[in-house]
UniProtKB/TrEMBL annotation:
It comes from the Bacteria. The keyword Membrane applies. Residues 4-57 form the HTH cro/C1-type domain. Gene3D superfamilies: lambda repressor-like DNA-binding domains (1.10.260.40). Keywords: Membrane, Transmembrane, Transmembrane helix. The chain crosses the membrane at residues 79-99, 111-134, 140-157. The lineage of its organism: Bacteria, Pseudomonadati, Bacteroidota, Flavobacteriia, Flavobacteriales. It holds the Pfam family HTH_3. One of its GO terms (molecular function) is DNA binding. This is Helix-turn-helix protein.
Length: 178
């Protein structure tokens, strides 16, 4: 992992946010984070946006810590056993993040996704019970809720796969609730 990732995560910035702040393309940021040393304008712009010295961005990290990756993946997968309970699926990863004192950009995104899913799940349940769909109403509500549970389980598993490969999320939103 390059120093750019560490400084970006320290400021809780996504690659897109750093791109907007620095004027450097997301693709260039991805290249730098993969290990290519920034030069010239790119180095100056990234250093200025992150408020660090240019030399600090070029320093090589001695050892890559897998602790952050493991905690992010634990927080993500902790939701899977309680995927069908809207409030608990937010409480479990939030509790782990608080317990481990681990709130980086990925953790915030994971919890934000679960908060949004819980809101959609609860709204589906409430609206489904308010609207009279006739004899099939209960079946439609149960089917919609089951579909939402399956979609959430897929998102959790897909994000876990992407965390294993690239230490990034596959599904994310452009804002954080927490």
């Amino acid at each position: 992992m390059s120093q750019l990732v560490a400084y970006r995560e320290k400021l809780n910035l996504t690659q897109e946010e750093l791109s907007e702040k620095s004027g450097v393309s997301v693709r260039t940021i991805q290249r730098v984070e993969s290990g290519i040393d920034p030069k010239g304008y790119t180095l100056k712009a990234l250093a200025k946006a992150l408020e660090v010295d240019e030399a600090q961005l070029l320093q090589k990290e001695v050892a890559v810590s897998t602790t952050t990756f493991n905690i992010n993946n634990l927080i993500n997968l902790s939701t899977l056993p309680v995927v069908f309970i809207p409030i608990v699926n937010v409480a479990v990863p939030l509790f782990i993040a608080l317990l481990k004192q681990h709130f980086n950009a990925i953790t915030k995104q994971l919890i934000t996704l679960q908060i949004l899913w819980a809101i959609v799940m609860l709204l589906t349940f409430v609206i489904g019970n308010l609207i009279n769909f006739g004899n099939l109403g209960r079946d439609i509500i149960i089917g919609a809720l089951l579909l939402l549970v399956l979609v959430n389980a897929f998102m959790i598993i897909r994000n876990s796969i992407e965390l294993n490969k690239n230490n990034q999320l596959y599904f994310y939103v452009k804002f954080n609730i927490i």
